[in-house]
Predict the 3D structure of the following.
Amino acid sequence: MSASLKQIEEQAKALSADERAMLAETMLESLYEPVAEVEAAWANEIDRRVAAFDRGEIDAFPAEDVFAEAHRLSR
């Protein structure tokens, strides 16, 4: 462990329980920022596709036809 990381750890341990909990939550959230960005991008894409479907710009296909075609192509 680097000296600066050790210093940060010691400083964090000196915080109150509530402050440590908030710090832990912030640190955990920082690990998942790329995931949040991907989820946001997918949410935008879903909204875009639903709107296009509602405007009649995208065709819909029965699920059984889609699965049958996927099965046929996987052989």
Summary: The chain has two domains: 1-31, 33-73. The CA atoms of residues 1 and 54 lie 55 Å apart. The mean pLDDT is 93.
